Amino acid sequence: MTVRLEESTVLITGASGGIGRAIAHALHQRGATVVLTARRVNMLDEIARELGDRVEVVGADLSNRPDIDRLAQRTDVDVLVANAAVPAAGRLQTFSDRELDRAIDVNVRAPMQLTLALLPHMLEREAGHLVYVSSLAGKVASGGSSVYSATKFALRGFGYSLSEELRETGVGVTTVYPGFIREAGMFHESGAKLPRGVGTRTPEDVAKAVVEGIDRNRAEIDVAPFSLSSGAKVFGLSPPMMSRITRMLGGDGVSEQLEVGQRDKR
């Protein structure tokens, strides 16, 4: 059964950021009731004022188990959009134990726990959809992203395996893989500069991919220029080759900029 967004209640995590805001607007425009959750409640209230009706704000920190438990008690959620993530850029030895735990808690454990709690209600209705916002870093690993890539690779494996487990149940699964996103999000906020010729996409492009994934029940969607998405395919075939190409194109410099620009948000 295909989920009808105009009749659905959608829970969006990480909704206070630019990408979460774009996703909220896109789903609300399709007629969904959106439940916005994030730590920054003041930002959620602002988005709620923009949307008007059919919106609910729920403050939550996904590194805090009681907050996840509170969200998990909802039985009305038809669609989960697990968008929240910690920008865990940097070499492994620069992380504290607390920062490592937080990256795993928010980027991996929270989507899994929410899915485990919300899925039975979807299966009972024989309708629902689960969307996981991963990253191209979940397909291509490079120096300076060991922790972040590990969490995003994990989300990729979880999403794809789950899509197979839920075949013919009426519950769909989509994993979205943004590349470098301009105007909002982790990359934009870091202030990092890309090498010449490396393209970007917008938050609205990510939102369109989320809607398309739900409408068409697509298992995976890349949100990146062809050069980056094709590079992800090359990495799958030959990681050493793609790693050499990435270094030649200045990937190490980008990783260092991301570490500096995102360090205080771990």
Key structural traits:
10 helices, 266 residues, alpha/beta, seven-stranded parallel β-sheet, 14% strand, globular, 7 strands
Task: Write the topology of this structure.
Elements (H helix, E strand, L loop, with lengths): L8 E5 L4 H12 L3 E6 L2 H11 L3 E5 L5 H8 L6 E4 L14 H29 L2 E6 L12 H20 L5 E8 L7 H5 L12 H14 L3 E4 L2 H12 L1 H10 L2 H12 L4
Parallel strand pairs: 1-2, 1-4, 2-3, 4-5, 5-6, 6-7
Briefly say what this structure is.
With 266 residues, the chain is an alpha/beta fold. 50% of the residues lie in helices and 14% in strands.
Biggest sheet layout: 7 strands, parallel
Order of secondary-structure elements: EHEHEHEHEHEHHEHHH
Name the strands of the widest sheet in spatial order. 3-2-1-4-5-6-7
Cα gyration radius (Å) = 18 Å
Query: Low-confidence segments, ≥5 residues, pLDDT <50?
Result: none
What is the count of β-strands?
7
Gross morphology:
globular
Span between N and C termini? 39 Å
